Amino acid sequence: MQPFTASIARSALSSVMSSAPAIHPDPVGHALLDYQKGQTTGLLTVHSNVTEDEELAVDYFFRTLWEMPELERMALDECRGRVLDLGAGAGCHSLELQQRGFTVKAVDESVGAVATMQQRGVQEVACHDVLHLPAPDGQPFDTLLMLMNGLGLVGSLEGLEQFLERVKTQLAPNGQILATSSDISYLFEDEDGALVINLNGPYYGEVEYQFGYQKQVGKSFGWLFADPSIVQDYAEAAGYDVEFLGEDDQQQFLVRLTLRS
């Protein structure tokens, strides 16, 4: 296996952190709240079943527009109408969109993340699991935003199928999903570049994570790194048009999914 490159790990793990189960312990939520109180040198520890442990600086959740990767800035530029920001973390994307005049609802499973966003001035915040979003309170959304490898919030291929069906109630006519994901097949290449995977086992992009902060350790949970062909196949089967908008040098890509009329 090749090492999990730092930039994709940081992007993926930061979104992983903001998708933690809401029940205690909530290491991510505590880390974000500590940062908000001025403890700006905190580190989160991330364990996974495919790589060595990673450390993630908490300040990554609080980055400004020009500290964001190009794909994230591109996604923000593609937003339109009412925006639902899923896996919003400390709210850096929601706050940027608010400054641009958008109406944004930020959603995260971490109670501490939700409290942090409220303290930072995100105007509408809710604590929900992306697979069990309540019906829109009022108008549906024109854009669903899932950044920092945010499509991984669905947890598995089964979760992806469920999400694409259930989230249709959230979308306005001509609404869009803007999401990032990554192809991590390179982790399973041998020295000759051939894939070494169990074709009878789980999809290689289904990863298990667990994270901690100080003495707190969270529960293990699933995360999906869906490659472009998987995203296209599942989205088209669910009735979406698929447009790939960009890709970086770490095999992370931005995709737009639009419901067919």
TrEMBL record:
The keyword Transmembrane helix does not apply. Pfam families: Methyltransf_25. GO terms for molecular function: methyltransferase activity. Keywords: Methyltransferase, Transferase. It comes from the Bacteria. The keyword Transferase applies. Residues 83-175 form the Methyltransferase domain. GO terms for biological process: methylation. This is Class I SAM-dependent methyltransferase.
